[in-house]
Write a structure and sequence with these properties.
The chain is α+β, with helices and mostly antiparallel strands. The protein is 57% helix and 17% strand. The chain has a five-stranded antiparallel beta sheet with strand order 1-2-3-4-5, with no helix packed on it. The longest helix is centred in the last third of the chain and has 83 residues.
Length: 145
């Protein structure tokens, strides 16, 4: 392994991996090693070589970093969960709005039919009253003639 120093601190900022490629320093953000620096083959996920080297030794604050990272990931997941809840509420609200509109239309239709029936009933009542009056007049006329 050939390593080249890219800083004055003596820590390696890049190296040449077994593939002959430059392996730059990166930072791990896995749950087990959050914030820890490493140098690895840039083609590792594409069948590259297995070159890998931790730049940092595991520090005494690694547990604290890991706990903070886990807490942050948990908060991010909660945020994503809340986003899903908000989206579901929006979907339900849209569904209920449509349903309320349909119910309002039905109510207006029933109200219209009710008004028509009410008019028809009044007309029928007036006709019955008119028939009663005509019948009464007819009886009166038969009495006097």
């Amino acid at each position: 392994m050939s390593s080249n120093s890219g800083s004055n601190s003596g820590s390696c900022s890049y190296a040449t991996c077994f593939c002959g490629e430059v392996a730059p320093m990166r930072v791990s953000w896995t749950e087990k090693n959050p914030g820890r620096r490493f140098i690895g083959c840039k083609n590792f996920s594409n069948n590259g070589c297995n070159f890998f080297h931790w730049v940092d030794k595991e520090s005494p604050v690694a547990e604290e970093i890991q706990a903070n990272y886990s807490k942050t990931r948990g908060m991010y997941r909660e945020k994503e969960d809340w986003r899903a809840v908000v989206e579901r509420v929006k979907e339900l609200n849209a569904h209920l709005s449509k349903r309320m509109e349909r119910e309002r239309e039905k109510r207006e239709e029933v109200q219209k039919k009710y008004e028509q029936c009410k008019k028809a009933l009044n007309i029928a009542k007036n006709r019955v009253y008119l028939l009663i009056v005509l019948l009464f007049l007819s009886v009166l006329c038969n009495l006097f003639y």
